[in-house]
Every structure is written in C-alpha cells, then in structure tokens.
Specification:
With 122 residues, the protein is mainly α. It contains five helices and no strands.
Length: 122
Amino acid sequence: MHPVVPASVRSASVEAEMCLAVGAPNACGVMTRRAVQSLCENKGAEGRDLFAQLKDLKNKQLITPDLHEWADSLRVSGRDGAHPEFPEVTADDAEDGVKLLREIVKCVYILPHDRAEKRRGK
C-alpha cells in the first residue's frame, strides 16, 4: 500500500484484504469498517459515532458525497460482521467492501498526494 496512507488505515486495510483472501467475510467487513474509522480519526472527524463522523467529513468537504455513501456502506457491513443479530456479510459483500475501501483510500490519500507531487514538479 502507498506509503502516504497512515499506518492505522494501512494496517486495517491490509487485514481486511487478508480476511477476504482466507474466506472470512464477517471479519473482512469488520476490518473495512475499522479502516474507515481510522480514516475518520486521522482526518479529525467529529461526532459520537462513525455515522456522525462520516457526516462530519462530508460536511467539511473532506470526502465527497459518493465517498460518504461508500464509507457508510462499509460502516453497515462492519456492524453486520460484528453482531450476530444482523445478517452475515456475504463473500460478494466482502469483496465489494474491499474494492470500495481501496477507492476511498485512493481518493482521500493517494490522489491528493500525487497531485501535490505533480504541482511541485516531482
């Protein structure tokens, strides 16, 4: 993963990928959620829970409305994976979650870094 991605986001993302690879979709859902929550913490999101923190990032325009929607779907998937009273995360949901997480990380960290490097002539 790109070195500009904070360690907490990177480690949770890598663990989500590992969970997907070994066929542990519930665990994958939990780890994608953890990565999103780590992103919120890194970006200084305010709010009492992940739902409010994601809304705060959207309101501050640190994430776009479509990224907010994607991140919120990972929040729900993580809840489902962690709590037996909710539906289990399917293998397809876990795979989609990892793909969404990759895009969120790319949009929030990697693309801004790459654009800044180009502006500096690197």
